[in-house]
Write a structure and sequence with these properties.
Order of helices and strands: EEHEEHEEHEEHHHHHHHHHHH
Distance between the termini: 136 Å
Radius of gyration: 43 Å
Strand content: 5-15%
Largest sheet: 2 strands, antiparallel
Strand order of the largest sheet: 1-2
Shape: flat
Number of helices: 14
Number of strands: 8
Helix content: 40-55%
Length: 354
């Protein structure tokens, strides 16, 4: 076979060249030759599509952060970057979109938390409310430890708020970063108290943590605000035996008995905020049923009235049509009479002349 004969590229690029040049063409010049992505995404593509792959398809291509933080990260890592980007928008603790600002703007140069002017809340509270773990971790890595126990205007600390929600992973994160489990707010809120009031028996502050000396001391000495809350919550309505068991369990740090007493009997319902909300919801539903019944009666009466009005309207329309018809007939008769009268006069005149 002649080495100088003309052949077409076997990879289908359409090039025609001598057989002696075919191997070199397919290895170096052919637009359809397979090439390895230089960004090491482990994808082989044709040389002709390499640029498009690098610009739009490659998972390792560099893309700019949409939050305009200036970072350029591989496309496959962008979701991870967005979860930790300090330029992501975070609302204030009141949830107002008007107070939203980049995450880093909620942190002062002194690594404390800055509050919005309108609601006097900060973005860390909103992250706790929404259980946005990524945002919470970003805050925790940037703020000073003292800001972790800072009280919100609602009377909650971050840990007390997490316990009231029963968010176990969030509680553990806050504890691992040094949140004070014994801290009592100005309104008498404590993490353990919020967990008990919310019937969150599995909250780590009540079961998963080993008793510390400070917590045992706190439980044994007690807090006058806790006792005041207990009295105001009508605990005196319960039997002396139940009260005695509960107070002994608190004083001895017997978490199992605390959970058993709080989770059972009338106490669990009357001391649970959800029970009161349930009663209010039931009353609202009953009132709604009454309103719906009254509305149905009024609608039926209105429909009957509308139907009666429509019937009367149709009757009036028919009467008007009849009047118009009779009026037209009367005009027709009058025209006939005029013609007859004119014919009579002409006839009389003709007879007289004859």
């Amino acid at each position: 076979m002649c080495p100088e004969r003309q052949l077409f590229c076997q990879k289908g690029c359409g090039a025609s060249l001598r057989e002696s040049q075919l191997d070199t063409h397919e290895a170096l010049d052919c637009a359809h030759r397979p090439v390895v992505c230089p960004l090491r995404c482990a994808i082989n593509c044709a040389a002709s599509t390499l640029q498009r792959h690098l610009q739009t398809d490659c998972p390792r291509r560099l893309v700019s952060c949409p939050n305009r933080c200036g970072a350029r990260v591989p496309a496959v890592e962008l979701p991870t970057h967005l979860r930790n980007c300090d330029h992501r928008m975070v609302r204030c603790g009141a949830g107002s979109s008007l107070c939203a600002r980049p995450l880093k703007a909620w942190i002062t140069p002194q690594t404390s938390l800055d509050r919005c002017f309108a609601h006097h809340e900060h973005g860390f509270m909103w992250a706790l409310k929404t259980s946005d773990v990524d945002t919470i971790l970003t805050f925790l890595h940037r703020i000073h430890k003292s800001a972790l126990d800072e009280e919100f205007t609602t009377g909650f600390t971050p840990l007390a708020l997490a316990c009231s929600k029963g968010d176990i992973p969030l509680v553990r994160i806050l504890l691992l970063h040094g949140a004070d489990v014994n801290l009592e707010t100005s309104r008498g809120r404590t993490p353990l108290g919020e967990a008990c009031l919310g019937r969150h028996s599995s909250t780590p502050t009540a079961t998963d943590l080993q008793p510390s000396a400070s917590r045992v001391k706190w439980l044994m000495t007690g807090s006058w605000r806790c006792w005041t809350n207990a009295i105001n919550s009508n605990w005196y309505d319960y039997s002396n035996n139940t009260q005695r068991r509960l107070f002994v369990a608190i004083a001895t740090s017997n978490y199992a008995d605390i959970e058993t007493i709080i989770a059972g009997g009338e106490m669990a319902y009357r001391e649970n905020h959800a029970w009161h909300l349930g009663r209010e919801l039931a009353a609202s539903l009953a009132a709604l049923d009454d309103i719906q019944t009254q509305l149905t009666d009024h609608m039926n009466a209105m429909n009957v009235s509308i139907a009666d009005s429509e019937a009367k309207q149709m009757k009036v329309v028919k009467i008007l049509d009849s009047v118009e018809y009779n009026k037209a007939q009367l005009e027709h008769v009058q025209k006939k009479e005029a013609k007859v009268e004119a014919f009579r006069q002409v006839t009389e005149l003709t007879v007289k002349r004859a």
